[in-house]
Write a structure and sequence with these properties.
four-stranded antiparallel sheet; D-amino Acid Aminotransferase, Chain A, domain 1; six-stranded antiparallel sheet
Length: 278
């Protein structure tokens, strides 16, 4: 494998790498390392590190303009928040990717193409370094781009992903939670996209989300891409699985319910290059 400064493939990442690649990418790396050898099919991919985000802004000398856009304002002034958020996103997107960073991203993309074929579709996903903390969750506040193909589309999606650290709701949430905008970095996960739009997808929790009971796994699922499930836009199927009973080899589904699953999210057509999910 090529030597990279700002790229880490999933097989190189574990749960201790949150400061480098954020909660989502660290978890993906942990899953890839531990579950793939056991036969669980985890899509391969790589993380563009939070160091790359800072390097990009350093190279463009963008920090003073970002401070000017975000220092000392009232987040409850919705109109001002919208203006400042757009300005901050424009600054980050306009910084552009340094030539060496862009070259690393494309080189890592080539390795995925070698593994999955030249036409592999990519999911380009944000992973903030403050995600999934015990007292705060930033997950879902930045953007994701799906079914990305081609060098230019990938690089543009990465720039837009970096800029999405400053969505209006992310800015407001950080202020509410007392986080410094400039001490949080954004990593990007680039991975083979699972074509769940052809079948079904869902979310699995390692405990009961209502009570915190740890001896069950809670699984939700619906047709198509999983964003409808994540956003609560669809009534999904639900399953509660009892871990000790499963380990003992017995029937282990404690409860199941059939959801309405009234809507399905899919790409507009097979060759859709990108679309954004907030």
């Amino acid at each position: 494998m090529a030597s990279f400064k700002y790229i880490r493939f999933f097989k190189e990442l574990g749960i201790d790498d949150v400061p480098l690649v954020g909660g989502k990418n660290a978890s993906l790396g942990e899953m890839y390392q531990t579950l793939a050898p056991q036969g669980v099919r985890i899509p391969n991919g790589f993380a563009i590190t939070a160091e790359a985000y800072r390097y990009m802004l350093d190279s463009a000398n963008a920090w003073p303009a970002l401070h000017d856009a975000l220092d000392n304002f009232d987040a409850d002034d919705v109109a001002d928040l919208a203006r400042r958020g757009k300005r901050a996103r424009d600054i980050v997107y306009g910084a552009g990717l340094p030539v060496d960073l862009a070259a690393e991203i494309i080189a890592a993309y080539r390795l995925l193409q070698q593994e999955y074929g030249d036409e592999v579709g990519l999911a380009v996903r944000s992973s903030a370094t403050a995600e999934d903390l015990p007292t705060a969750s930033f997950a879902g506040q930045q953007d994701t781009f799906l079914n990305v193909r081609g060098d230019d589309n990938l690089l543009d999606a990465c720039r837009r992903d970096f800029a999405s650290l400053f969505t209006d709701r992310a800015i407001h949430y950080r202020l509410d939670q007392g986080f410094d905008h400039f001490k949080i970095g954004l990593s990007i996960g680039v991975m083979k996209m699972v074509r769940s739009d052809l079948s079904a997808s869902g979310v699995m929790f390692s405990l009961d989300t209502e009570s915190g009971f740890r001896d069950v796994v809670f699984i939700t699922g619906s047709y198509g891409l999983g964003e409808n499930v994540v956003q609560g836009a669809v009534d999904p199927d639900e399953f509660y699985v009892h871990k000790p009973t499963f380990s003992a080899g017995h029937r282990c589904v404690l409860r199941r319910s059939l959801g309405g699953k009234a809507i399905k999210m899919s790409p507009l057509h097979e060759n859709t290059l990108t679309f954004r999910l907030k």
